[in-house]
Amino acid sequence: MSKTKVVQWDPADIKEELLKKYPPKVARKRAKQIMINEATESEAPPEIVANVRTIPGIITMRGCTYAGCKGVIMGPTRDIVNITHGPIGCGFYSWLTRRNQTSPGPDGENYMTYCFSTDMQDQDIIFGGEKKLEAAIQEAYDLFHPKGICIFSTCPVGLIGDDVHAVAKKMKAKLGDCNVFGFSCEGYKGVSQSAGHHIANNQVFTHLVGENKEPRTEEYKINLLGEYNIGGDGFEIDRILKKCGITNIATFSGNSTYDQFASAQHADLSCVMCHRSINYVADMLETKYGIPWIKVNFIGAEATAKSLRKIGEYFGDKKLIDKIEAVIAEEMPEVEATAKDVRSRTEGKTAMLFVGGSRAHHYQELFNEMGMKTLSAGYEFGHRDDYEGRRVIPDIKVDADSRNIEEIEVEADPELYSPRKTEAEIKALEDAGYEFKHYDGLNPDMDKGTIIIDDLNQYEAEKLVELLKPDLFCAGIKEKFSIQKLGVPLKQLHSYDSGGPYAGFKGAINFYKEIDRLVGSKVWSYMKAPWQENPELTATFVWE
Ligand code: CFM
């Protein structure tokens, strides 16, 4: 049975359909988070409401602040012991589910396979959990002697008032050779995991960055910010960087080590992959140490080549530029051959992408390379700048929820601040079209008339699929099976299902092949859910 596309829908009708079932107040709020790209109704580009609370009762795709801090930012670091202070479920469900891969390296240190938790019980909630936390830190130290121990607060910790920072300070002093610090990243602290990113970035910058003073003598030193090595993406990017002769001092934080964070101030350029989760660190590194930052994207072969060239142009050294061109020339033929092969089958197919804060944008590069069209996309927790570009940052309203997240004061370091380029050098680059601290966001890269939706929910996801019948839906595990039951394949762009890497050149090849198979398979459309085949089940109460 072939699927027929509903072509008669116009985006305004789709939006209306999505909102139709809501009570008026909910519909009014959601209407501001559903936008028709380049809407014709107004001259100015339309604004989207983002980073606001999910309406109670709605089944959101979002995660919590603890997940953003522990799971996303600190979780991928392999030689820091990450202790969850809270009930066991919080630690267990944030343990290895994100597929951030690690490779131990010559030191052999890798705590990724352990799940550390204080396993709070009722009595800890009543009498306080600080003593238990102290004991857990001591136990972890005695067993592993790690360079660092991080403590993550879950909801009950904030509710009962355990002071994780005081415990961390006390234990740091007691242990002497282990950096212990904590995060007030209770799950409820912000409207989504985005708040957790900010909290994590602030603490890492305060307690860790800059600690290793040992000078670095390598050439072309960069930091790679916002790359978390999901499915081995970071390994592929590191392979390419190494081949080009670029030194990656610190990745924040895929397969990273304590020492990488501690040495980040030695880099001469910060390259930001995931703008949402880490732009704070890029800004702080610039303010304190004088390291400029650029936006890069290693998702998509063309985007990878472009990002490498951007790094080359920054250093401006012919040796590096030539090497980068040689690497691109060597890697691209296989990519192009695979793209050409799959395109005969993928051209014109349609996709929808709803992922956290970056991937709903970045992955459109790969779909474009396959000739596929993105009908609708959005972030779970992106901010307006991730949609509309950084130019809107000064206009973003700071609400009570954002004010709840600590802003730290960063100043130029009296000894270590040294601008990597003179003002004249920066100006010359900018005059030639080079963009520092620049991100245009998702909207300009999407076609006119496509539908951009912030904080999509279960109901709207199913409705969208029903109305637009895409060939592929990209989201996460929570959405996977409900969408597939509608007959549409779902590719997980958080964990990559069991696949990856998808970054860089080899990753692009992997992605083309996998998506080709997914959109070419009719298996999901053959499936019938029991309720589609049989009349609705009825039942009666026993007393009737
Ligand atoms: Fe950045 Fe990420 Fe993402 Fe993100 Fe995430 Fe992730 Fe994501 Mo899942 S840091 S915003 S909080 S790119 S875990 S590796 S896939 S929602 S789009």
From TrEMBL:
It catalyses: N2 + 8 reduced [2Fe-2S]-[ferredoxin] + 16 ATP + 16 H2O = H2 + 8 oxidized [2Fe-2S]-[ferredoxin] + 2 NH4(+) + 16 ADP + 16 phosphate + 6 H(+). Its EC number is 1.18.6.1. It comes from the Bacteria. Its cofactor is [8Fe-7S] cluster; [7Fe-Mo-9S-C-homocitryl] cluster. Keywords: ATP-binding, Iron, Iron-sulfur, Metal-binding, Molybdenum, Nitrogen fixation, Nucleotide-binding, Oxidoreductase. Pfam families: Oxidored_nitro. Residues 64-518 form the Nitrogenase/oxidoreductase component domain. One of its GO terms (cellular component) is molybdenum-iron nitrogenase complex. PROSITE patterns: NITROGENASE_1_1, NITROGENASE_1_2. SUPFAM superfamilies: Helical backbone' metal receptor. GO terms for molecular function: ATP binding; iron-sulfur cluster binding; metal ion binding; nitrogenase activity. Gene3D superfamilies: Nitrogenase MoFe cofactor biosynthesis protein NifE, C-terminal (3.40.50.12380), Nitrogenase molybdenum iron protein domain (3.40.50.1980). Belongs to the NifD/NifK/NifE/NifN family. This molybdenum-iron protein is part of the nitrogenase complex that catalyzes the key enzymatic reactions in nitrogen fixation. Tetramer of two alpha and two beta chains. Forms complex with the iron protein (nitrogenase component 2). This is Nitrogenase protein alpha chain. It comes from Maridesulfovibrio salexigens (strain ATCC 14822 / DSM 2638 / NCIMB 8403 / VKM B-1763) (Desulfovibrio salexigens).
